[in-house]
Specification:
Layout: H1 5-10, E1 18-21, E2 25-29, E3 37-43, H2 59-75, E4 83-85, E5 101-105
Antiparallel strand pairs: 1-2, 2-3, 3-5, 4-5
Bound molecules: guanosine-5'-monophosphate and zinc ion (ZN).
Length: about 120
Amino acid sequence: MDDCIFCKIINGQIPSEKVYEDDEILAFKDIKPSAPIHILVIPKKHISTLMEINEEDMYLMEKIMKAIHKIAKQQGIEKSGFRLIASCGPDSGQEVMHIHFHLLAGKKMGPKIVA
Ligand code: 5GP
Ligand code: ZN
């Protein structure tokens, strides 16, 4: 998608600090981190929201989870833990319309996700 920030990161038009990449998944540091470790994990295919994933693309969710396992080990947080957040649609405040999972770690999180 031409006007999508994350597609521009994927094709290198916008620079990013990559932490993981394979043929279909990319992970990079969030530009405005909310925790000492704040990584965004995305499919390279442009899918705008979690509700837009069709049956054919569902395997990408498995690939994302496998990438998250690798990233957690690479970042040394596989035992200390992390929080995964994915927003979908207007009520969630989703700003970038390209599916992404926020991987937050490196500090003790509060007991609740803000609602
Ligand atoms: P959302 O609110 O859509 O769930 O989260 C979008 C996230 O993308 C935000 O945490 C924001 O800081 C991050 N972000 C937006 N633009 C850029 C960018 O150009 N580069 C990087 N690395 N992160 C970005
Ligand atoms: Zn996109």
